[in-house]
Amino acid sequence: MPTDGSVYSYSAVLMGSPILLKLFSHNPPLASRVFSLIKQYEDLLTVNRAQSQVMDINHAAGLHPVTVSRPVYQLIQCAKAASVLPNSAFNLAIGPLVKRWRIGFKGDSVPPADDIQALLNITQAQDVILDDDNLSVFLTRKGMEIDLGAIAKGYIADRVRDVLLKEGVTDGLINLGGNVQTLGTPQGRWSIGLKKPFAEADALVGAMQVAHKSVVTSGTYERYFEQNGRRYHHIIDPHTGYPLDNELDSVTIISTDSLDGDIWTTLLFGAGVEKGCQMLKGRADIEAIFVTKAQEVILSSQRQFRFTLLDDSYRLIDCTA
Ligand code: FAD
Ligand code: MG
């Protein structure tokens, strides 16, 4: 880090999200390499265009297996493992429901209950068949679609971190729009803001201080629409086909890998605060901050981060309380 501590910020829009890279040296070629890398992964993983490796799998649903590249295969393997955990809220086969609701895209509206019921039959994670020998993926039923929207940004944030480390960068930050991965400890620690739900874009509930960690937040307030006075957000309960409805506005995970953060935000979103705190007891490597509709900020053990409350309309509570 230069002794004057100047931060150089580079931004782009990729994966429908604002991307921000912070470095401590002026290095436009490195910033462009990072943005190209993100774009390469977007091209492999997107389901928002007709063609990508994931779309090749989706187009062949009910027909035949499709061989993909090793990174795509491994990410799908991870996503399936998270999906088949008992009572998991994570489901990599959620695609048909995501496409039907269109939350965050033009034309979003509440689908008829019959449509949702029918789509639940083609959103079963166990119908995603993986073949380790051929690196192939087969969706056994016609109409099935993999959607990696809840995990891909985490994976990509980790790959950006790896490239920066390889390039000798000791201090830096990548934010993929909700997925932050940090390198180093400039001025002691990175301070990452925790957004205030349904408030102005820059309003914060608090800030996390972290070093060498990823911070991932999933919330109900970024992508949603309102119909007949009700709000519908983009994290779908795979068991009902409707947006997850519980006491939470957001879940933030602090972990070493952003991939884990991305998976756990969805798992804990589904579990809710009480079960979520239980689940974290066995995982010293995963820490969480729950923000509830009742304006509570509930923290796990704070081994890997410090939290500063910035909005005194919120009450700070410990997971163990
Ligand atoms: P998370 O909470 O981590 O994930 C929510 C997303 O995961 C949902 O949007 C849905 O896609 C999926 N999902 C919903 N319910 C579940 C569930 N129960 N289990 C598993 N997954 C679930 N956005 C655009 O507007 N335009 C684009 O062109 C575009 N392209 C993208 C390309 C890529 C490769 C990726 C990774 C994302 C892209 N996005 C795009 C954003 C995408 O549509 C999601 O909004 C985004 O990935 C959500 O990330 P998150 O961290 O906010 O939410
Ligand atoms: Mg996620």
Automatic annotation (TrEMBL):
Cofactor annotation: Mg(2+)
Record-listed E.C. numbers: 2.7.1.180
Protein name from the UniProt record: FAD:protein FMN transferase
GO molecular function ontology, one term from the record: transferase activity
Family: Belongs to the ApbE family.
Reactions performed catalytically: L-threonyl-[protein] + FAD = FMN-L-threonyl-[protein] + AMP + H(+)
Lineage: Bacteria, Pseudomonadati, Pseudomonadota, Gammaproteobacteria, Enterobacterales
Keywords: FAD, Flavoprotein, Magnesium, Metal-binding, Transferase
